[in-house]
Amino acid sequence: MRVLVVEDERNLADAIARGLRKRGMAVDVAYDGDAGHEAAFVTRYDVVVLDRDLPGVHGDQICADLAASGALTRVLMLTASGTVADRVEGLQLGADDYLPKPFAFDELVARVLALGRRATPAAPPVLELADLVLDPARRVATRAGMPVDLTNKEFGVLSELLKARGAVVSSEELLERVWDANTDPFTTIVRVTVMTLRKKLGDPPLIETVVGAGYRTAEVGA
């Protein structure tokens, strides 16, 4: 899942980003409204965690512009004001969810995950292929009932491939969805991650390489 955090309180923004990355999400951070507005329209994010009161472009404007654009990005709006009127106004602007400060971090994570599941195409809460079961909310993977120990990036790649339901996913798409903006676009990290993922998943193979195009899940038993 790719997430953008737009928050001018740097310590809070960095803490949110660190926490979400520990949950295996690819997270970019913008510290003002101008940078946040630009990032939100340059990269396709699943979720934007958006502070309402931002310097530069106001959070309300970013939210309204995203809603008007028809983007599939879900918006979780944060604000220091938690009155009912403020929540209603934020939702009317196009926000998908609203969380007043201060908040419990576990609640923020749960809300981000819930919004991410509402992305299009909608993904089931548990992803399955043959005897492989992937539970993104619990960060658990099993094959034939046995746990599979995956790194955050391996888990992210596998999740994207399973959500594609057999469609080819390019290396560029995986890089965009699983890694953040600081990753070298010319890196071989996707190929290396898929290679180690295949080894951990074992036989019969569940990931196919489509030469010149990318990767897809295998048609098990075909």
How would you describe this structure to a colleague?
The protein is an alpha/beta fold and 222 residues long. Helix content is 40%, strand content 21%. The protein has 8 helices and 11 strands. The chain has a 5-stranded parallel beta sheet with strand order 2-1-3-4-5, sandwiched between helices. It has a 4-stranded antiparallel beta sheet with strand order 6-7-8-9, covered by helices on one side. The chain has a two-stranded antiparallel sheet with strand order 10-11. Helix 6 (152-163) packs across helix 8 (189-201). It starts with a strand and ends in a 5-residue tail after the last strand.
What are the defining features of this structure?
five-stranded parallel β-sheet; 40% helix; four-stranded antiparallel β-sheet; 222 residues; alpha/beta
Question: Can I get a quick summary?
Answer:
The protein is α/β, with parallel strands linked by helices.
Query: What gross morphology would you assign?
Result: elongated
- The percentage helix is 40-55%
Distance between the termini: 30 Å
Helices and strands, in order, run as EHEHEHEHEHEEEEHHHEE
The parts where pLDDT drops under 50 for at least 5 residues are none
Number of contiguous helices: 8
The tally of beta strands, per DSSP, is 11
Question: For the largest beta sheet, what order do the strands appear in spatially?
Answer: 2-1-3-4-5
Kindly name the structural category.
Answer: alpha/beta
Main sheet specs: 5 strands, parallel
Cα-atom Rg, whole angstroms? 18 Å
Overall pLDDT: 88
How much β-strand is present in the residues?
Answer: 15-25%
